Automatic annotation (TrEMBL):
The lineage of its organism: Bacteria, Pseudomonadati, Pseudomonadota, Alphaproteobacteria, Hyphomicrobiales. Residues 18-253, 271-514 form the ABC transporter domain. Belongs to the ABC transporter superfamily. Keywords: ATP-binding, Nucleotide-binding, Sugar transport, Transport. It comes from the Bacteria. GO terms for molecular function: ATP binding. InterPro entries: AAA+_ATPase, ABC_carbohydrate_import_ATPase, ABC_transporter-like_ATP-bd, ABC_transporter-like_CS, P-loop_NTPase. This is Simple sugar transport system ATP-binding protein.
Amino acid sequence: MSALPDPHAASGRRAIELQTIGMTKIFGSLVALEDVSIHVRPGTLHALLGENGAGKSTLVKCIMGFYQPTRGSVLINGKEEIIATPRDAHAHGIGMVYQHFTLVPSLTAAENLVISRAHPPAVIDWRKEIAGLEAFLEKMPFKVPLQVPVASLSAGEKQKLEILKQLYLDQRFLILDEPTSVLTPGEADEVLGLLRGMTEAGDLTILMISHKFREVTAYADDVTVLRRGRMIGGGRVGELTVDDMSRMMIGDTKIRERAARKSFEASKVTLELAGVCALDDAGLPAVDAVNLKVHAGEIVGIAGVSGNGQSALIEVLSGQRDMSEGQLFIDGQDFVPQRQQMAKYKVFGLPEEPLKNAAVPRMTVAENIAFRSFDEPPIASRFGFMSPKPMRKKARELIAAYRVKTPSTEEPIENLSGGNVQRAILARELSGEVEVLIVANPCFGLDFASVSEIRSQIMDQRNRGAAVLLVSEDLDEVLELSDRVAVMSGGGIHYVVPIAEADRNAIGKAMAGH
Ligand SMILES: Nc1ncnc2c1ncn2[C@@H]1O[C@H](COP(=O)(O)OP(=O)(O)OP(=O)(O)O)[C@@H](O)[C@H]1O
């Protein structure tokens, strides 16, 4: 017997066929999913499209057993099965890869794989396990280094490892939630191309949530489009145009025209970072002597591969991480990123993972939207209490203006879809007078109509004279919005160019640390 029982050989499991019949999920008074029947043919890559809040996550959570559908059933290889928990889904060969990594960073890839088994051995014989894992990797379309800590892998390698983990667990129906959102375009093509190879060989079936038409048209066989919880259309990708798909997604919702860039005469420096250094959680240098000036009416976009210090830099600027050295200035004055000074200098921002970093998940949408102004009239009453009526009124206005989909102002914000949490936080941050705006990956996980809307909002703030620091892993976003492009690598910024001189190749080299 081999060290690692080869689950594939043992079960001989191949690509799985999956159908949902009349899937319906009701949360209180909200029908999140209504009578959705989809058919994912075995050995195909099936894309699931829909605007933010359309019900994509709810559908896959019902398939995975995270939610119990109000009505409806799942057929696996033509047979109705009860999936009461994710464990049941795994037992049927259905696995899910999330947008965010679920690996343990301090463990190696090998350790992560072995502990992911339902019944890891009590005493692990590593020599045998490694031999078994190497034999497993031999048969896999992509490789990752097995014996280095996951923390030192690139985003692309981590994503590959997440997928490998599912295959190692013998899951032959994979649900991928926006699998390429953390990958460079090159890595995205590589991963999707290899997965497509596995589906074509009949080894795997994939249901992929995506907002990227390019990936859907290039790699998917079939598509299903959801709108407001209902299945609105779909079919063979080859028989549909991008226009067909986008019309199915948003109906006749108007897409906001991108705001034009207003030109300014030489303007003052608003935000200045001088020799900013910061350490990561392990006490190692994360931000290395960053010097940067952002002028009024200017967007400086910081491009870079994730994990090069951008998150720590954003945390420093939003007061969530101490600087180890350096200084910040706004309008030439010393700036300490604390609540009072942020209010004084009108500093607003959207950090990464807004539900975690910029919201209180269990509090209502109205309360979360009121955070910036809960201690100012009219929301604060004379006696220091919050007045619910003005708070709800303001929340209702912002919800309408930013098209946040929520059943009411009183819904806990954690119940909103990912894209709608993002919109609610942006509504809060962009609704006042903004002098400095600091945004990290503002369009992560947003549908195409929202991307257009949010980028226009950012451009509006710039045109009104705000100094905008945009950190984004999406190079296209940086190139589209920025007046100047900076590249962060290894914690430092050693490359800054005006947009007119920005060259993709040179930026790519700087991103790789050259
Ligand atoms: N646990 C919950 N309780 C209440 N409402 C919920 C819950 N989960 C989801 N919803 C609601 O169901 C609807 C569909 O949300 P879902 O997360 O499925 O959308 P989505 O298509 O995945 O959106 P996104 O692209 O933004 O992730 C939304 O209106 C959301 O607010």
